Predict the structure.
Amino acid sequence: MARTRSRRKPLPETPVKATIESLAHDGRGVAHVDGKVVFIDEALPGEDVEFVYTEIRKDYAEGRVSTLLSRSDIRADALCPHYGVCGGCSFQHVASSEQLRVKQDLLVEQFKRIGKIAIPEIWEPLAGPHWGYRRKARMGVKYVAKKDRVLVGFRERRHPYLAEIDSCIVMHPLVGTQLLALGELIAGLTIKDKIPQIEVAIGDEQCVLSIRVLEPPTDEDQARMRAFGHEHNMSLCLQSKGPDTIVPLTGEPEIIPTYALPDQGIEFKFRPAMFTQVNYEINRQMINRVIETLDLDENDTVLDLFCGLGNFTLPIAKKAGSVVGIEGDLPLVNHAKANALHNNIHNVEFYAADLSKDISDYPWANRKYNKIMLDPSRAGASEVLHHFKKWQPEQIIYVSCNPSTLARDAGILVNELGYTLIKAGVMDMFPQTGHVESIALFAKK
């Protein structure tokens, strides 16, 4: 007997009134309707709105504003014509000058609610450019046969479909202004329906676009791409499988992007698909803050966990006696070693290790470190924190791209391991989006 699929009840079409009480961590307004929490896109605290439901679940619901009945003082008119459709941004309705304050309030709330601790001192937020800052991105590509058009850009908000956009004003203009041109380029290729994504990597002077191809392009296709790259000052590469398969077009030189830290006299080389910070201005300010806060000298032995290609490790090594960097991605570790040599820095060691697993047998894990730096992924660093009992660092500085896991880990450091939270704050790494980059300093009691 065939099973019938269960059908969801249709969503109510009539708009519902609500007063927005607070903001969720992703920037959506929070209201309560009929005893159920509702997360509403583009709604701000204190506003009265009419909204329509976009999703109703057992424990919560989601919606979007249909009519703004009262307007918050911090509300702004979005500059991008695609805002609300494209899912790349979620904060353009908040005045740029207010976004950091909103995110700072979110950080304070997360520390209280999740970590069960108050932040004793708030760092002055680090601010930079509000637009055109993004230098790394993975853009989707989709050939739409009905429109005979190739879309290039980002997913629709809360949908898997690619948004129909012609520009992106948070992307660096070298790429953000060329989405239509990229779509037209791909539409003219024989493999226009065999290209799912483009990896963008923009260095200080170089722009590399790695085009994922499910079938090899023809010689004519490569000629078209080569001409496009020369015209727009980009290096177009082909990616047939994983990141290690990225190669230049036939006959083109391999371009290795770089970014510099002028205050430290350091230059990093990186491969296009490798993780680097998206916002170079904030990255430089963030590194300066870490260096100043750690107050390093030749007597310091520093452990840098989740070190990537050495973004913090090498600047720290310029000041400290010795530094050990740990990263789970072996290609990044090898690149970090190469960057140390490139910068003539020799008091640093790099090792590959999965920091979510037991690391007690590694020789580096059985040394002493008086200061620890960590910059984990969104998942945080809870698994490695119990090793701090062995290391007993005097200072811990923690950079995070997810305030909820930072708050959780701060609770572990303070409430379980006996550290004192000295200060914390936010950094404007991702303006116009709900992402919050934050930093916290802990000291041994």
Summary: Residues 136-257 form a domain with the OB fold (Dihydrolipoamide Acetyltransferase, E2P) fold (CATH 2.40.50.1070). The chain has ten helices and 21 strands.
